[in-house]
Amino acid sequence: MSMQNPVFIPGPTNIPDSVRKACDMGTLDHRSPAFARLFKPAVEGVRRVLKMDEGEVILIPSTGTGGWEAAVTNTLSPGDTVLAARFGMFSHRWIDLCQRHKLDVEIIETPWGEGAPLAAIEKALRADKGHHIKAVLATHNETATGVKSDIAGIRAAMDAAGHPAMLFVDGVSSIASMPFDFAGWGVDIAVAGSQKGFMLPAGLAILGVSPKAIAAMETARLPRTFFDFKDMLASYAKGGYPYTPAVGLIAGLAHAIDLLESEGLDNVYARHHRLAEGVRRAVFAWGMAPFAASPDLYSDTVTAVKVPPGCDGTALVQLAASKYGMAFGVGLGEVAGKVFRIGHLGMLTEAMVLSGLAVAEMCMADLGWPVTLGSGVAAAQEYYRGTIEAVALAAE
Amino acid sequence: MSMQNPVFIPGPTNIPDSVRKACDMGTLDHRSPAFARLFKPAVEGVRRVLKMDEGEVILIPSTGTGGWEAAVTNTLSPGDTVLAARFGMFSHRWIDLCQRHKLDVEIIETPWGEGAPLAAIEKALRADKGHHIKAVLATHNETATGVKSDIAGIRAAMDAAGHPAMLFVDGVSSIASMPFDFAGWGVDIAVAGSQKGFMLPAGLAILGVSPKAIAAMETARLPRTFFDFKDMLASYAKGGYPYTPAVGLIAGLAHAIDLLESEGLDNVYARHHRLAEGVRRAVFAWGMAPFAASPDLYSDTVTAVKVPPGCDGTALVQLAASKYGMAFGVGLGEVAGKVFRIGHLGMLTEAMVLSGLAVAEMCMADLGWPVTLGSGVAAAQEYYRGTIEAVALAAE
Amino acid sequence: MSMQNPVFIPGPTNIPDSVRKACDMGTLDHRSPAFARLFKPAVEGVRRVLKMDEGEVILIPSTGTGGWEAAVTNTLSPGDTVLAARFGMFSHRWIDLCQRHKLDVEIIETPWGEGAPLAAIEKALRADKGHHIKAVLATHNETATGVKSDIAGIRAAMDAAGHPAMLFVDGVSSIASMPFDFAGWGVDIAVAGSQKGFMLPAGLAILGVSPKAIAAMETARLPRTFFDFKDMLASYAKGGYPYTPAVGLIAGLAHAIDLLESEGLDNVYARHHRLAEGVRRAVFAWGMAPFAASPDLYSDTVTAVKVPPGCDGTALVQLAASKYGMAFGVGLGEVAGKVFRIGHLGMLTEAMVLSGLAVAEMCMADLGWPVTLGSGVAAAQEYYRGTIEAVALAAE
Amino acid sequence: MSMQNPVFIPGPTNIPDSVRKACDMGTLDHRSPAFARLFKPAVEGVRRVLKMDEGEVILIPSTGTGGWEAAVTNTLSPGDTVLAARFGMFSHRWIDLCQRHKLDVEIIETPWGEGAPLAAIEKALRADKGHHIKAVLATHNETATGVKSDIAGIRAAMDAAGHPAMLFVDGVSSIASMPFDFAGWGVDIAVAGSQKGFMLPAGLAILGVSPKAIAAMETARLPRTFFDFKDMLASYAKGGYPYTPAVGLIAGLAHAIDLLESEGLDNVYARHHRLAEGVRRAVFAWGMAPFAASPDLYSDTVTAVKVPPGCDGTALVQLAASKYGMAFGVGLGEVAGKVFRIGHLGMLTEAMVLSGLAVAEMCMADLGWPVTLGSGVAAAQEYYRGTIEAVALAAE
């Protein structure tokens, strides 16, 4: 029988039942006024989650990768320079995308496990007297290493350097799970996906775009049609869409934001922090540590657990799947085997997280890793029971 | 947000996603041949789950209580004697139902925590020289105490006494989760409900009826219409139903049996036993014990946990619900407060059960009970990891 | 491929998508406060639909037949007299049920096609000087013949006769589709089912019960447990239920009533009348007529169409199903073959009804009946386009 | 209340219930073997529907527009020449996309209402002695005008000209509804979307790619990442996906193809033809005609109905939506107002189509157009009843 354990991959995340129902809708004529009625709350909701005070929200039937591509193709031209730090698989991939699109990427190589290097960024910007750098790319939460970066710090660095570049932020695995402040941080494009904190199926790239980035599209010469913001905004203005929209996901997005806001965004962030901290307590109780270089970098959505010497993180992930029907994330790229990843974002309860920790422990014991069964669970229990808010039993 | 922890009440149980989908169907004309095509596999599937070699399966849009009522009203007449042991809330309720229907119930009062008293039953039957006892009622699994009874033993007692009474078995919380042998045990009526081992929503009483019980309906004078077997069987024979059937539940039943049989009924029973044994190991690790009087009585679908002196089981259940969003069962009747109940039947994985145990432990700690966090979890982990079969990741 | 034409049986009716979603829910602990939060709106909603000003609403996991049984077993004793007119299959079945439960039914045989005979009822009541008649049974809408009866008229007859009998009304195929006035008509028990005007799957008997009927349960000696009102009301008072409730159907009921009330009950009734009148215009355009004896008896939920001499209504129903995938109702009992029935209740639009009429016409042509293709459709179109209110495109 | 009439827009189409269920799935780890098990049947199914004998199937979380973009960016370089006829809004848009991507489009302007001009295409290819034309773009079914083009004829023209260009076919509104022969027609890239003949929600671009087109990606210099075939094929080979896939849509695609194949693809095409022909009979009975220039061009998936002089097709579409809750398609671009469009593809029955025709007639009468109510319905009825195959009642 197909059993339904929660997943602990760092996205796609567990989908609440009511979100699934909101997405699962009959066919609607997207050229009718009904579409506009459904679209507007989704767009307005994203605006609130991102904390935008101006600019536009763009929804594209695509993924985070498509969101990255939309960000750069709508604002930049071949040969333009962008500045980016590389410190994990996902920061790498965005850089690679830029290079494929003939952008000149000034890469700040940074050890995996660290976050965006503020001083180096500021230094690079100061060195760019001619303002060739058109955009700074920042990965808010590096899903591969479980590291969050200080976006406010990047903005401060840009301001300190007096540099006019745009700030593009990959918030795919942070937005709607960790605090985000589009307006406060001076973000020009924020990229999110439906399948992480928004708790939807994959299939929607979600972007916040500042007026400055919108203005940039007038001169941007990278080719685009599917991702074209201008077509989008022109259609939105008429209550339409430039091609067939992913209506169900848009309806689901509006509903998911309703859920998040009925819990309270601050409560959502606090819950993610609490769940994450419990996971970290378990990790330390196992005698291990997060891969992130320092506590200030710990992600509240995913923990990459450094495995003991001689142990193989990938083996744990495979065993958890095959023996216990539970999905964790493997280490990617240069940390393959050296970590396994526990996603703890989206719809999750303390009880669910404890089940994940318990399964991880069983796998460790099965694989002969040095761990005491129940030790991580107990550490997380102790933390959770002292910090949890009362939750009402789900009436749904 | 409405979080979706598994429930650990002893029914209704967690519903697999595909069962929900099977139940959720558009309107079908129940007077068309399509209904018969849908009905037959459900009936045939129940026959296999019950291990019937003859007799009929009856499906009524009702519940286990309705199934009890159907059993007696179709086969008995006012003033008839039935023999029943009372050792828990559910055996009590069936007795009460019989009394309301003007049956003369010969009650063998048995301490809660024990099972059906074979010797006393045999003795009572032997004493009934005139064969006034028309039926023996047996509660296969007393949901209130977590006690299973030996139905084969009751049949042996009846045979030893040479008594012609019918044998009616309440299998509501056992059937489809624990081995059941309608033919082998000489059962005359077995009563099940949709919402336990069959993993469906409540709303369907499921009965297996022997030829002897069917014959009894010819002379039974207790009034019935909604529950009337004769109407049912006459309609079934024509591919119909005497009134509007619960089509979705019937479709879901057929699908649920497909799931059970694709896992293998023996594997389903083994899984229930394994999950239950893990729970019991946790209970002992907590320094507590199941309420069932002896290990041979331990139910594999529900464990009533005796709480330590001075502790209140109901408080634990309330705290688990209000603080952790998790549902356990309270003690009922004379064991109110003295136990709390962990249901471990239906769609459950080791990971889910561990989450339940972890939450129970947190509640105990919160309530000041003497327990070491993680202790029960560790005992269950150790047992599970040594006994679990590989399960494939749910592709569904 | 399984195509999804609307059904035109007189129940179960087409289920709105959002009602299906409301019914399709995960497992909820029915002993938790969450159940009470879900139950109360359903009960309160039924109270408004029935127009009750006092008394109780009872919801039983059962069907209309179960509702009939609950009505009589909770209020009457063996040998009690009830008065009922028989003028169709469903009035017959309730009478039969009473007889099986040892009630003495004074039957007023009435030609099928007519409604409840007010004068005869008044006469019978006046003749019952000793007030042996404890209840008058009335079938508000005889589903077999498409005839509505005048319940206010029956109440007037009872009052005129000064008779204290209770008034029990079968509103299974009228309630929520045609005006009903529990308080105004002095109804003592109204019986509805989930699968008609409430647009839910079958599986819920819905009853309104007056204080007088509740008082009657104190002395009623017909046996009942599953259907026992006293257990129900005692449990309801504590936010509970006497056994496992059909939680999904109860949630769906609350939602369906929300839908009905957001349309406006008067608008719902007006829509049913308009759809029905269009069907009747089509029937006359075909040169046929409703089976109901006179226009004041025309049901707004089902039309039994008298077929031309030499034609077989059942053949039409079978052909519609096998060739066109569309479900109509056959004639039952003494009108088998002489009529076919078009159900036009629940979630239906003008467009849907026109598709039903168009299919009926094709079947008639296929069977060689004298009909002009498009004639009935045109008559209904003409009526609908002159009377329809603007409906918003479904945004769901 | 939100009523659920079928839609008659030319896509997205009505979604079968079981397809909705197949799409609506819980979260699956797309890096686990479960994903490969789910992905392979979808890909293999598309291969059969397209009639591919070699090459690759590509599935992208996108739409038909994204499919167009993927086709050209993976195979062409800036400045490459493509040949395309423009005879409707959708052929126009693909041309526009090419131009935005810096391709040199040799456009054969063709009157709207006509199909791809074979002679002109052959002439253009013969004139291209230097083989600058790298690809011929062909719109198999022009959704704006209801015109199908002769793809086999284009292939013949290419062969006759001895031209090595690739053949790219937009089959968005034809594939899975009208015969398609990837191998037989020598197609190099076929573009389809999920939301038309495949009866899924929008959100998936579906492409068939020939070995020749795959080889072209080695030298193609148009930038792409999200749409990159090479990344896709490398990931597919390992049972993976280059980013997060739209798992539910992929599962739904496999299921939808199961439905199509269980009906039989030839039967699906025949059904579409039959439904379309009935619509056309209605159109002629109204005294109107399809916009397509000649019968050999009539599309079996959408009919653009030329409205009488002085009438406004857009007004009809708006009235149908606002008054009758039914969705038709407006005329686009140069035929705005001059036509209205009836989509008749995907999950549709004769009964549903008749409801659409009946509503169209009511709108015409409401708008004062010269039409006899029921006339088109009758013409379609006559045709359908003579040609329909028996369909089994939906048991789902």
UniProtKB/TrEMBL annotation, chains A, B, C, D:
Keywords: Aminotransferase, Pyridoxal phosphate, Transferase. It comes from the Bacteria. Signal peptide: none annotated. InterPro entries: Aminotrans_V_dom, Aminotrans_V_PyrdxlP_BS, AspGlyoxATase, PyrdxlP-dep_Trfase, PyrdxlP-dep_Trfase_major, PyrdxlP-dep_Trfase_small, SP_NH2Trfase/AEP_transaminase. Its cofactor is pyridoxal 5'-phosphate. Residues 30-282 form the Aminotransferase class V domain. One of its GO terms (molecular function) is transaminase activity. PROSITE patterns: AA_TRANSFER_CLASS_5. Belongs to the class-V pyridoxal-phosphate-dependent aminotransferase family. This is Aminotransferase class V-fold PLP-dependent enzyme. It comes from Rhodobacter calidifons.
